[in-house]
Design brief:
The complex is a heterodimer of chains A (258) and B (367). Chain A has 258 residues and is mainly alpha-helical. Chain A has twelve helices and no strands. The chains are: A mainly alpha (258), B alpha+beta (367).
């Protein structure tokens, strides 16, 4: 493939990838640099990593993000599965309208959602800002996402599986437990894999509905940047690039083993 | 539970089932004899699958009764009825092994573990699947999956096995093999089979009794021979391939035969039973294989004789489908010419021929 078009294509592809990855690569490189601002190379060091691991604020923020993300994933997938099942299998008035309305949280700009939720929590209902508000906001976004992913899979499932289960003597609950959920599991896991990073890394909506003292990791990073503590940010960011990459590598390895 | 002589295994009494806009099952009554293969045959949309699902319990009926072993089961849910279904898509649980699939029903019935193991082993042997127990459905061939589906249902020893076009997704050769297997398995196991199909050849080859359905109604119930040789209505005749249909009125009749004048003025002779009244007779049909084709000039005595020219020839392997346009009349007769060497004189397109068949090959159609 050493033709001219082949070479041009290769060049364009390489440039594109570089363009996408250079910022990330720079962050990773400078996380090991002995520079407070994290923008110049001043010698190799691991001090930023040890700093963030001993920094209580970072640990707390990480803890909050993790808690929110885990709870969001669990609730969103559970509610999402049940909702998708109902939307798919039962015919009722307003079904289409309901299905369409679930798109709203996903397509609305985050700023508007955040702002609207803040007003809602403070003026309309009296929802304490902090874990309650953040969780509600995240679950309101994660559940429609889960519903759509699971609905998509449901359209490709052979539903006579449920009838076969009933035919063989299983009541509704047993069929649900032994057949429906296992068959839907790939979709449920897919939605979890999508919702977790979204929830963990969400800034805009969380920023609006978090209270004064509550910091999730993205909010911490934002605040830290404003106060010029950029080196630590590099370290945090590097970890959050490394983790999904490691996860993907593991998945690839596992798949190849099969 | 022993079935007393003559009690049908499954019975439908005047069953009606409708969906928005259409009556899928329209006052159907039938009796399925114990220990036989009973087929519901008809084109798509005729109601045969709905009827099967009513027996299984996947649909609730609007009117009438469904009885299994003389007991009304209308309100008994599917998972409590003593029947088992083999689905068109087979519906094998993809996340379970073959063994787990077959054991599923037994586990639901709380059979002890060793009993389950025994029965599953037996089933695998009966279906020639020994050694495949730990495989997943996706690792099996089409025919093997069929057999797992059958095993999964049969292992429960149901009163009746319901099969919804189970061989529809198989290729022709495999389908023929499986048809023979299904028949053999049924004879070995002795369970009543209620079989739904749209393939008349399949129904003819495996059934003890066939019920032909059209537009939700039962058109005719009889042995394969009866349905094929003496279809009662034009719909059945056409569906079973007796595509030469003469509609008209009976003009003369003796006690054993009748002469019909068709709408286009042709005279056709058929044998008839005593109990058919002339007013009922709406037409006559003839199977393509029952018509003899002879060179035009042949001088021959025959009950039914017509002359025409060959308009079309379609090679079908073991026979050639030939369409002949009759002289003086705007009508085509379809004939199957056997391609066995030496069977027939060779004919060519446009050639004039003589067609004839005996009165015994004509079927009377009731209006």
């Amino acid at each position: 493939m050493k033709s001219l078009t082949g070479k041009t294509l290769l060049a364009i592809a390489t440039l594109t990838y570089l363009f996408m990855w250079v910022p990330a690569i720079m962050v990773i490189v400078f996380s090991f640099s002995n520079d407070k601002l994290g923008v110049r190379w001043e010698g190799f060091t691991l001090r930023w990593y040890s700093e963030i691991f001993s920094n209580v604020a970072v640990r707390d923020a990480f803890g909050m993000s993790l808690t929110v993300a885990v709870i969001t994933v669990v609730v969103s997938t559970a509610v999402g599965t049940l909702a998708a099942y109902g939307l798919y299998k039962y015919k009722f008035r307003g079904r289409e309208a309901l299905r369409m309305s679930l798109l709203l949280p996903i397509i609305m700009p985050a700023v508007i959602t955040g702002g609207a939720l803040l007003v809602f929590f403070t003026r309309v209902l009296n929802v304490p800002l902090g874990y309650p508000s953040i969780l509600i906001a995240h679950i309101s976004f994660g559940t429609p996402l889960a519903i759509f992913i699971i609905l998509g899979r449901m359209a490709r499932i052979d539903w006579s599986l449920e009838e076969a289960s009933a035919d063989l003597g299983a009541d509704r609950l047993t069929t649900w437990r032994k057949i429906t959920i296992p068959v839907l599991l790939p979709a449920i896991i897919a939605s979890a894999i999508l919702i977790f990073p979204w929830s963990f890394g969400d800034f805009t909506i969380t920023f609006f509905v978090a209270g004064a003292g509550d910091t999730t990791l993205p909010i911490y990073v934002f605040s830290a940047l404003r106060f010029g503590e950029t080196a630590a940010i590099n370290a945090i960011s590097t970890i959050f690039v490394a983790l999904p990459v490691a996860f993907l590598l593991l998945m690839g390895f596992y798949k190849r083993k099969k | 539970m022993e079935n007393s002589e003559g009690t049908p295994c499954v019975e439908l009494r005047n069953v009606v089932k409708g969906f928005p806009g259409v009556t899928a099952v329209d006052h159907v009554s039938l009796k399925v004899e114990q220990g036989k293969i009973f087929s519901l045959l008809g084109p798509s949309g005729c109601g045969k699958t709905t009827t099967l699902r009513l027996v299984a319990g996947f649909e609730t009926l609007d009117e009438g009764d469904v009885l299994i072993d003389n007991k009304v089961v209308n309100d008994i849910p599917a998972h409590k009825r003593n029947c088992s279904t083999v689905f068109q898509t087979l519906a094998l649980f993809p996340h379970m092994t073959v063994e787990e699939n077959i054991a599923y029903g037994l586990e639901r019935r709380k059979f002890p573990k060793d009993e389950i193991k025994n029965r599953v082993g037996e089933a695998l042997e009966l279906m020639q699947l020994s050694g495949m127990g730990k495989r997943r459905p996706s690792q099996l061939s089409g025919g093997q999956r069929q057999r797992v589906a059958l095993a999964r249902s049969l292992v429960l020893r149901p009163r009746i096995l319901l099969l919804d076009e189970p061989l529809a997704s198989l290729d022709r050769k495999l389908r023929k093999e499986m048809q023979t297997e299904v028949r053999q398995i049924q004879q070995e196991v002795g369970i009543t089979f209620l079989y739904v199909t749209h393939d008349q050849k399949e129904a003819l080859s495996i059934s003890d009794t066939i019920a032909v359905m059209g537009k939700g109604r039962l058109e005719q119930v009889g042995t394969p021979n009866e349905i094929y040789e003496t279809p009662r209505t034009m719909f059945i005749a056409d569906f079973m391939g007796a595509t030469n249909i003469f509609l008209g009125k009976a003009i003369t009749s003796g006690s054993r035969e009748v002469q019909l004048e068709s709408e286009d003025g042709l005279r056709v002779i058929a044998t008839k039973n005593k109990d058919i009244r002339n007013e009922e007779i709406a037409g006559i049909s003839v199977h393509p294989e029952r018509i003899e084709v002879l060179p035009e000039g042949t001088d021959l005595e025959a009950d039914n004789k017509f002359r025409g020219k060959i308009a079309e020839m379609n090679y079908q392997g073991d026979f050639t489908e030939v369409k002949i346009c009759l002289n003086h009349v705007d009508r085509f007769i379809t004939v199957h010419l056997s391609n066995e060497p030496g069977q027939n004189a060779r004919f060519s397109l446009g050639e004039g021929v003589l067609l004839c068949w005996s009165r015994h090959s004509s079927n009377i159609l009731i209006g």
